[in-house]
Design goal:
Layout: H1 2-25, H2 33-36, H3 40-66, H4 86-89, H5 101-105, H6 107-114, H7 116-146, H8 154-157, H9 161-187
């Protein structure tokens, strides 16, 4: 969290300077740093990155329920695909005394809690995607006005190549990163990391943390 706060603060400073230069180029009044933090430009830049990250992890969590990669530390064992039975998941009558209350209660509460991670990640993804879309639309129209061109409705902006360019360039990079990590973990090691197999583990060994 400290690294996150430092980097977003640094991003905001760099973005403010870039925004101020752009304002000067268009002979518009400069804005203060606090004012820049509530502009649609800054919000859109932040949201477009957040939504790609939460999309990545949401799909990764869901995919690894059923899909496996032999030899990868990021995968379950080949015979453990699927949602697994109640006994292994410690829910309902198989729950321990210190299990979360909703895991012990059964019914819809256990169903919701059993999927709560994906529910939360999906909700954050859609909120950040909408934040990116809304602020991108506002920023796009502000740029249109600065160039004395017609503004567009939010439905029109949804089809603008600029919106999908910024969206998809983030998505593809996230899926490339998670895909290469899963594959590299088959053959490469980092001693002491739970994201890696043991240094001496065979390449075909699956779901082994070191």
């Amino acid at each position: 969290m400290v690294i996150f706060l430092v980097t977003i603060a640094a991003q905001s400073q760099a973005g403010w300077r870039l925004y101020r230069d752009d304002q000067n180029t268009h002979h518009q009044p400069a804005v203060s740093y606090p004012r820049y933090l509530v502009t649609s430009e800054f919000s859109a830049e932040v949201m477009e990155n957040w939504q790609s990250e939460f999309l990545q992890f949401t799909l990764y969590i869901l995919a690894t329920v059923w899909l496996v990669q032999k030899g990868s530390n990021e995968s379950k064992q080949e015979d453990e695909t699927g949602r697994e039975d109640d006994h292994k998941q410690l829910v309902g009558r198989y729950a321990n005394a210190d299990s979360p209350r909703w895991a012990r209660m059964g019914g819809w509460r256990t169903t919701v809690y059993s999927n709560s991670l994906v529910i939360a990640m999906t909700a954050i993804f859609f909120l950040s995607w909408f934040g990116h879309f809304l602020n991108g639309w506002r920023s796009f129209n502000a740029d249109q006005r600065a160039h004395r061109q017609a503004t567009v409705s939010w439905t029109t902006y949804l089809h603008e190549p600029e919106f999908w360019d910024t969206t998809l360039q983030n998505w593809q990079s996230e899926f490339l990163a998670v895909g290469t990590m899963a594959a590299f973990g088959i053959y490469l090691r980092q001693r002491g990391s739970p994201e890696s197999k043991h240094v001496g583990a065979p390449h075909e060994q699956t779901a082994s943390s070191g």
